[in-house]
């Protein structure tokens, strides 16, 4: 799958054993970490399969946590997931595309950012059945509003049912259609610089476009969170060059020099970058 496969044999074997026992596909996180190369030929490190060591000498012997399936299963046990979100997650798990929904720890981080910001006006690009948008709507004040954009009407029906069940429908403005068109029309309507928070979790080939549009809609000091910035580890693998990977890789690279925002890439879920408009 990636060059990471060749880098970290010790960790891989540990991972595979756990995955085999749990009867599920191998989790790619460990295999894709550049930080893993020091493990080659040092199988004593298998004694602690949760830790990998920086490959690049610039980082010294910096140790970072790698998420094995067991450790990953531990994370959600430390998330305070509201009952209604759990119900939605479990219902969605039976649907096609369920792997797309945000994880409980990611949704909790989004809700926390909204609360820290004191956000009232939010946007989500890529709603699916509504897990992350509901997490945000639940913490918005009664006067708050979330514009929820998605092109898939079937998924949106599930989302709307859950907004109703959770009693937050009055805070959510669902926009069914191509997200870039919805965002453009919001700009045309004079809504520029009026939003506090945005979350992007849709078409990966459109990341730069979504970012440019949202940068117009979000106020100075507002936050844009971009999901899937690690793209299952593919971004760090020079052998992977499909359109989505290239788009995210280019987006990440360009963001490094983008003086319009301050940034923080967080390796939660499939990677999220938090961008604060300057
Ligand atoms: C990864 S899922 C979103 C998951 C959601 N944030 C959650 O936590 O459940 C991506 C969604 O983006 C939507 N999408 C993809 N491309 C789109 C586009 N160009 N315009 C609008 N929606 C789009 C898909 O229909 C899909 O529901």
Q: How is the topology of this model organized?
A:
Elements: H1 4-7, H2 9-22, H3 29-32, E1 51-53, E2 63-65, H4 69-74, H5 83-92, H6 104-117, E3 121-125, H7 131-139, E4 145-150, H8 153-166, E5 172-176, H9 179-188, E6 195-200, H10 207-217, E7 218-227, H11 243-256, E8 261-266, E9 272-277
Parallel strand pairs: 3-4, 3-6, 4-5, 6-7
Antiparallel strand pairs: 1-2, 7-9, 8-9
Helix pairs in contact: 6-7, 7-8, 9-10
The structure holds S-adenosylmethionine.
Number of domains: 2
What ligands does this structure carry? S-adenosylmethionine
First and last CA, distance = 38 Å
Number of strands: 9
**CATH architecture field of the largest domain:** 3-Layer(aba) Sandwich
Structural class determined from secondary elements: alpha/beta
What do we call the CATH homologous superfamily of the largest domain?
Vaccinia Virus protein VP39
Shape, per Cα inertia axes: globular
Helix content: 25-40%
Largest sheet: 7 strands, mixed
Helices, by number, come to 11
Strand content is 15-25%
- The chain-level mean pLDDT equals 86
How is the largest sheet built, in terms of strand order?
5-4-3-6-7-9-8
Helices and strands, in order, run as: HHHEEHHHEHEHEHEHEHEE
CATH topology of the largest domain: Rossmann fold
Radius of gyration: 20 Å
- Residue stretches low in confidence (pLDDT < 50, at least 5 long) are 1-45
What is the CATH domain class of the largest domain? Alpha Beta
Could you please describe the fold and organization of this structure?
- This protein is of the alpha/beta class and 278 residues long.
- The chain folds into 2 domains: 4-76, no CATH class; 80-277, Rossmann fold.
- Helices cover 40% and strands 18% of the residues.
- It has 11 helices and 9 strands.
- Strands 5-4-3-6-7-9-8 form a 7-stranded mixed β-sheet, with helices on both faces.
- α10 links the parallel β6 (195-200) and β7.
- α6 packs parallel to α7, α7 (131-139) runs parallel beside α8 (153-166) and α9 runs parallel beside α10.
- The longest helix is centred in the first third of the chain and has 14 residues, at 9-22.
- It is globular.
- The model is unreliable at 1-45 (pLDDT under 50).
- S-adenosylmethionine binds next to α7 and β4.
- Keywords: Methyltransferase, S-adenosyl-L-methionine, Transferase.
């Amino acid at each position: 799958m990636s060059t990471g496969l060749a880098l970290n044999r010790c960790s891989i074997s540990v991972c595979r054993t756990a995955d085999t026992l749990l009867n599920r596909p191998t989790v790619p996180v460990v295999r894709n970490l550049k930080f893993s190369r020091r493990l080659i030929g040092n199988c004593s490190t298998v004694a602690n399969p949760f830790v990998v060591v920086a490959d690049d000498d610039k980082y010294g012997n910096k140790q970072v946590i790698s998420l094995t399936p067991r450790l990953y299963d531990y994370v959600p046990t430390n998330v305070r997931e509201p009952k209604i979100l759990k119900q939605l997650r479990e219902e969605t798990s039976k649907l096609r595309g369920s792997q797309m929904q945000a994880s409980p720890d990611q949704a909790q981080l989004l809700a926390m950012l909204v609360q820290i910001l004191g956000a009232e006006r939010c946007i989500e690009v890529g709603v699916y059945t509504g897990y992350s948008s509901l997490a945000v709507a639940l913490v918005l004040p009664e006067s708050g509003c979330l514009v929820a954009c998605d092109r898939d009407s079937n998924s949106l029906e599930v989302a709307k049912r859950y907004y109703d069940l959770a009693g937050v429908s009055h805070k959510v403005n669902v926009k069914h259609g191509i997200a870039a068109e919805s965002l453009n029309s919001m700009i045309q309507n004079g809504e520029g610089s009026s939003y506090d928070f945005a979350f992007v979790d849709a078409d990966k080939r459109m990341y730069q476009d979504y970012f440019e549009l949202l940068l117009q809609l979000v106020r100075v000091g507002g936050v844009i969170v971009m999901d899937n910035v690690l793209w299952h580890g593919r971004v760090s693998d020079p052998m992977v060059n499909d359109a989505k990977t290239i788009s995210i890789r280019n987006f990440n690279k360009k963001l490094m020099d983008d003086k319009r925002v301050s940034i923080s890439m967080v390796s939660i879920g499939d990677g999220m970058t938090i961008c604060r408009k300057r």
